[in-house]
């Protein structure tokens, strides 16, 4: 099978177009990329944008990768239709992230030199526009705006939408607006002669409200919707934007964010705030999660609800802070010392960051346990046009003890395992929350009977809880004997690969796990019933999900693992090829 | 602070749990002084939270009738900070020892001082790790011989009051467990003073440092004259014997408070930031 | 301890009520401390000394109640933060004087020391420039404390002095957290 963009002559009316804007520092390709995204949204399209940049703090090479489509998109395509650069300074570093094909167009400014050979290997078509010279002909205009105009024209975005996006971006600098709009118009005019066009099909009718949002922002909003009013955190790439979004947002709803001195402090502050009765959260990435592990055990033992959003990046150690990987599953599930039952969840799209984080807060509160949300750099930093996520039902919140319970026992051995929590200020219920093993009253105990009773209690509350249908997204043909199991940001490319495979006649089911621990084994086994072949797709080097599934439940049929380390996201075509080979095996 | 006329006797602030400390331990004096201070301030026990880390002295929360939090080693100040910022209505007292506060928790000590959250930090300093059977702590004398550091560490002692003052603590004092009444008075002042109050308490360890029984002969009652001038306080510390007692510094820095505009708007309004 | 400013801060009682309030606070503090020390000994399974401290606590409690009865007080004045010339009340045992292996002899020596300090405390009032009725009350209280010293000394005579090495423990201290 061939996809549309592999045809030598591109038909008009594509349902998905992918473009890259690249250039070196100060060229403003990110700004132009954001405007293109806004313009696409305004025109009624769905879209997704990720960004890559060099290691320089300022002035390094940068690339905005944008996919515009007539339906919601959750990953990048296999190939980009257009690579457009203001200049080519070290842009070749993004070679692996910008696959091109014979029908792709490489567009550059001839005065800035030749495109790097790496981008010409696939034999793409080429076009040249003297961006700088055009910009120079208009007072105060810049080449990136010329490029924006040209690109918008090449993909068929209406002029009004581009004007709207430019106006929205430059609203605070009205002096720049006129020259920018003139540059956009000049770019559009200059691009009229370029033959290799990748025009979009008309946008779909709008069914409801749409958002332009990143996964980090969605997670922050989900946290607040779930009830979080206290956040303590330490900045870390790529979680910082989540915190920066939450700081002013919390202030608007009566909450507080405090910047801690390190992750040890942030997790312990979070525990302190939640012990005080205020639903609390912290966000971090792998190195920070590693530092938080000891205190997470405290939250398990003392039964203090809280949420840690781990926006995963490439590890181990400092790794590649700006790139995505699903390598923290092991530490999230197994990192705590002792037997320490807790929750691990994963959002499976940018929009789902809202629902999953909200659910994590609700579960943590209801079960008085810490929850780790495994987002990742791709989901967290991707900016996407999405349908407004549906509202999800509220759960019963924290079980708070009534005032002055006679003989109050904070860690009473209840049937559900959840015992009413006294909040400081409540008379007659004072107790000491303790990381030491304790008896029902909370007094330290080194008795084996107390230890086992409390271990049972803490496990029981997680295992006997009814998580409902949200534990996974089950899609595809429920009677198919082939199943793909995945989680997190792999879900997007897997979904798209399964759509293509369906067109090839391959029937398959998708299980995208939202609740990773405790793994609802009986529900998963039901979802996998009758499977002859199971493919586990994940983005890490050692197959952490595969091992986790193997350890937690009996997987039927023949199970194979499709895993790849991070830094580069899976592409749908890669998974699609695997599915086809798999079906022939 | 909720100073209400509940007229609870000091004994009312102690719990039923009996301390595991060695008879002769200075920490008994801190429980005594804290309960007297709470009584003096007429606080309701449920409006107090005593937060600690790990170590002998960190067992205190269980011995009080207030709310308590016994967390992990070195992080008591962080837990207390989170609690106080989330629940400004509570009286938060963080307790611990020299190892917990100055070694594993040293970074939090610096930042708690400079953050200046309105809470009181009581460090029971016995210059030794007691719960792990007698290893040198940051305040141990350089030549103190132990199994882990034979012939001593050779390291200069950490100077808690100098560090606290330099880091921005708004109230700095030293008390002695041999004088629970004097210590109670200091604690009352510390809890009343806005911002972060640091009270270094000389608390002898009779088991691993029996020579500290002599401290009662060395301490100098009311040796400090309280000042609001940090420079003057710093100068005074330059000729501190280490056994000078009293309030050294009571400054005027505004306590920590969230900055910027605040509101209580409906959560759904935040969606406006995303809607196209 | 120098106690330089403590003396200055404690005003001499101007009336019998003030003086007896001071005596009452002293008995309360002594009784509470003995009870606390009994608990400490109990925790460390030193039942004999625990029992002795409990007994001393009851005795001091009785003295406390006698003061209430004598003064016709329903309850005593607030003793939450009473400032003494010494760090604590003259009849209060210093926490630092305890040892988990201590024997009744040691406990009684502490009690003797306390009673003697109490007597001296009252004797100073008896000689101070205070109203005559205060001096009379102080003399009376001092005599009572002297009597306690004698009683404790009799008790001590019946208790064997400790053997050398009484504080040796064959086992090392335990490790907790």
Secondary-structure blueprint:
The complex is a heterotrimer of chains A (585), B (276) and C (177).
Chain A: E1 16-23, H1 29-43, E2 46-53, E3 62-69, E4 82-85, E5 105-108, E6 125-128, H2 131-136, H3 143-155, H4 159-169, H5 174-191, E7 210-214, H6 215-226, E8 230-233, H7 240-252, E9 256-259, H8 263-275, E10 280-284, H9 286-302, E11 306-312, H10 329-334, E12 343-345, H11 352-367, E13 370-376, H12 377-381, E14 383-387, E15 432-434, H13 448-463, E16 472-476, E17 482-487, H14 491-503, E18 509-513, E19 515-517, H15 521-527, E20 533-538, H16 544-552, E21 558-563, H17 572-584
Chain B: H1 27-40, E1 48-52, H2 60-63, E2 67-70, H3 76-86, E3 91-97, H4 98-104, H5 106-115, E4 120-125, H6 160-167, E5 171-176, H7 180-192, E6 197-202, H8 215-218, H9 230-237, E7 246-250
Parallel strand pairs in B: 1-2, 1-3, 3-4, 4-6, 5-6
Antiparallel strand pairs in B: 5-7
Helix pairs in contact in B: 1-7, 4-5, 5-6, 6-9
Chain C: H1 4-9, H2 16-43, H3 47-71, H4 104-126, H5 132-157
Helix pairs in contact in C: 2-3, 2-5, 3-4, 4-5
Question: Remind me, CATH topology of chain C?
Answer: Ferritin
Can you tell me the CATH superfamily of chain C? Ferritin, core subunit, four-helix bundle
Looking across the biggest beta sheet of chain A, what order are the strands in? 6-5-4-1-3-2-14-7
Query: In total, how many beta strands of chain C?
Result: 0
Main beta sheet strand tally, sense and closure of chain A: 8 strands, mixed
Structural class of chain A: alpha/beta
Report helical residue fraction of chain A. Answer: 25-40%
- What portion of the residues of chain A fall into strands of 2 or more residues? 15-25%
Category from helices, strands and their pairing of chain C: mainly alpha
**Assigned CATH class of the largest domain in chain A:** Alpha Beta
The CATH C-level name of chain C is Mainly Alpha
CATH topology of the largest domain in chain A: Pyruvate-ferredoxin Oxidoreductase, domain 3
The CATH architecture classification of chain C is: Up-down Bundle
Largest sheet of chain C, in brief, is:
none
- Beta content of chain C: under 5%
Please tell me how large the radius of gyration of chain C is: 18 Å
The shape of chain A is globular
Overall number of strands of chain A: 21
Gyration radius over CA of chain A? 26 Å
């Amino acid at each position: 099978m061939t996809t549309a963009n592999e045809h030598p002559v591109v038909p008009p009316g594509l349902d998905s177009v992918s473009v890259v804007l690249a250039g070196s520092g100060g060229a403003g390709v990110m700004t132009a990329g954001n405007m293109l995204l806004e313009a696409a949204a305004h025109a009624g399209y769905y879209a997704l944008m990720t960004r890559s940049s060099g290691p320089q703090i300022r002035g390094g090479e940068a690339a905005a990768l944008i996919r515009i489509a007539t339906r919601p998109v959750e990953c990048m395509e296999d190939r980009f239709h257009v690579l457009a650069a203001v200049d080519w300074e070290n842009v070749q570093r993004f070679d692996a992230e910008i696959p091109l094909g014979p029908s792709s167009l490489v567009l550059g400014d001839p005065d800035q030199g030749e495109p790097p050979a790496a981008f010409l290997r696939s034999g793409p078509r080429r076009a040249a526009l003297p961006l700088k010279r055009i910009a120079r002909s208009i007072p105060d205009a810049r080449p990136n705006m010329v490029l924006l105009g040209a690109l918008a024209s090449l993909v068929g975005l209406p002029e009004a939408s581009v004007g709207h996006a430019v106006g929205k971006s430059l609203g605070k600098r009205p002096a720049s607006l006129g020259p920018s709009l003139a540059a956009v118009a000049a770019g559009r005019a200059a691009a009229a002669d370029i033959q290799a066009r990748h025009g979009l099909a008309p946008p779909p009718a709008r069914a409801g409200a749409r958002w332009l949002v990143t996964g980090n922002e969605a997670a922050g909003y989900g946290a607040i919707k779930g009830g979080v009013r206290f956040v303590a955190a330490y900045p870390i790439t790529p979680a910082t934007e989540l915190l920066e979004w939450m700081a002013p947002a919390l202030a608007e709803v009566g909450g507080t964010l405090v910047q801690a001195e390190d992750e040890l402090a942030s997790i312990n502050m979070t525990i302190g705030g939640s012990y005080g009765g205020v639903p609390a959260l912290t966000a971090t990435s792998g190195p920070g999660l590693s530092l938080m592990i000891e205190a997470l055990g405290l939250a398990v033992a003392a039964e203090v609800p809280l949420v840690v959003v781990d926006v995963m990046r490439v590890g181990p150690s400092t790794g590649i802070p700006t790139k995505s990987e699903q390598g923290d599953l092991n530490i999230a599930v197994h990192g705590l010392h002792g037997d320490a039952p807790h929750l691990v969840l994963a959002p499976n799209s940018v929009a789902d960051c809202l629902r999953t984080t909200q659910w994590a807060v609700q579960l943590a509160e209801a079960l008085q346990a810490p929850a780790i949300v495994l987002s990742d750099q791709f989901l967290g930093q991707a900016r996407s046009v999405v349908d407004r996520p549906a509202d999800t039902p509220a759960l019963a919140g924290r079980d708070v003890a009534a005032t002055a319970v006679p003989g109050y026992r904070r860690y009473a051995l209840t049937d559900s395992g959840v015992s009413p929590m006294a909040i400081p200020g409540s008379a007659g219920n004072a107790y000491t929350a303790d990381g030491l093993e304790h008896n029902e009253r909370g007094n330290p105990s080194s008795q084996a009977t107390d230890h086992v009773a409390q271990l049972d209690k803490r496990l029981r509350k997680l295992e006997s809880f009814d998580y409902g249908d949200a534990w996974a997204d089950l899609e595809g043909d429920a009677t198919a004997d082939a199943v793909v199991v995945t989680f997190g940001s792999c879900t997007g490319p897997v979904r798209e690969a399964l759509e293509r495979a369906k067109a090839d006649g391959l029937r398959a089911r998708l299980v995208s796990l939202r609740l990773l621990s405790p793994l609802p084994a009986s529900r998963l086994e039901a979802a996998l019933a009758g499977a002859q072949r199971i493919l586990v797709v994940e983005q890490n080097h050692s197959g952490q999900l595969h091992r986790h599934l193997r350890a937690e439940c009996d997987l039927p049929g023949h199970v194979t693992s499709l895993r790849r380390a991070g830094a580069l996201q899976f592409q749908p075509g890669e998974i699609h090829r695997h599915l086809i080979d798999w079906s022939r095996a | 602070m909720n100073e209400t006329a509940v007229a609870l006797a000091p004994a009312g602030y102690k719990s039923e749990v009996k301390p595991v400390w060695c008879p002769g331990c200075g920490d008994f004096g801190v429980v005594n002084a804290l309960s007297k201070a709470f009584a003096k301030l007429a606080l309701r026990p449920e409006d107090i939270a005593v937060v600690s880390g790990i170590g002998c002295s960190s067992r205190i929360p269980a011995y009080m009738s207030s709310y308590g939090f016994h967390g992990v080693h070195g992080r008591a100040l962080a837990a207390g900070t989170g609690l106080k910022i989330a629940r400004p209505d509570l009286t938060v007292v963080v307790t611990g020892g020299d190892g917990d506060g100055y070694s594993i928790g040293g970074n939090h000590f610096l930042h708690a001082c400079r953050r200046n959250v309105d809470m009181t930090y009581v460090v029971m300093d016995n210059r030794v790790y007691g719960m792990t059977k007698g290893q040198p702590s940051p305040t141990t004398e350089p030549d103190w011989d132990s199994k882990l550091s034979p012939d001593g560490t050779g390291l200069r002692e950490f100077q808690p009051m100098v560090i606290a003052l330099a880091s921005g603590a708004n109230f700095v004092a030293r008390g002695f467990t041999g004088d629970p009444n004097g210590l109670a008075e200091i604690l009352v002042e510390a809890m009343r003073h806005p911002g972060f109050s640091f009270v270094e308490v000389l608390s002898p360890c009779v088991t691993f440092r029996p020579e500290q029984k002599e401290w009662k002969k060395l301490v100098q009652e009311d040796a400090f004259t309280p000042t609001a001038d940090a420079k003057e306080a710093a100068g005074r510390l330059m000729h501190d014997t280490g056994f000078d007692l009293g309030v050294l510094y009571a400054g005027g820095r505004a306590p920590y408070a969230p900055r910027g505009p605040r509101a209580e708007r409906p959560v759904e309004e935040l969606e406006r930031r995303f809607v196209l | 301890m120098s106690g330089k400013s403590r003396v200055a801060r404690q005003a001499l009682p101007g009336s019998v009520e003030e003086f007896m309030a001071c005596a009452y606070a002293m008995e309360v503090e002594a009784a509470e401390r003995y009870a606390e020390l009994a608990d400490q000994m109990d925790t460390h399974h030193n039942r004999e000394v625990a029992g002795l401290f409990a007994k001393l606590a009851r005795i001091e409690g009785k003295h406390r109640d006698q003061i209430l009865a004598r003064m016709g007080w329903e309850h005593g004045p607030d003793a939450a933060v009473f400032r003494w010339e010494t760090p604590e009340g003259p009849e209060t045992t210093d926490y630092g004087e305890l040892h988990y292996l201590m024997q009744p002899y040691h406990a009684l020596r502490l009690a003797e020391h306390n009673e003697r300090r109490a007597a001296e405390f009252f004797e100073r009032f008896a000689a101070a420039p205070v109203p005559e009725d205060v001096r009379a009350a102080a003399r009376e209280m001092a005599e009572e404390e002297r009597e306690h010293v004698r009683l404790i000394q009799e008790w001590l005579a019946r208790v064997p002095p400790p053997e050398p090495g009484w504080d040796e423990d064959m086992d090392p201290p335990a490790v907790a957290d």
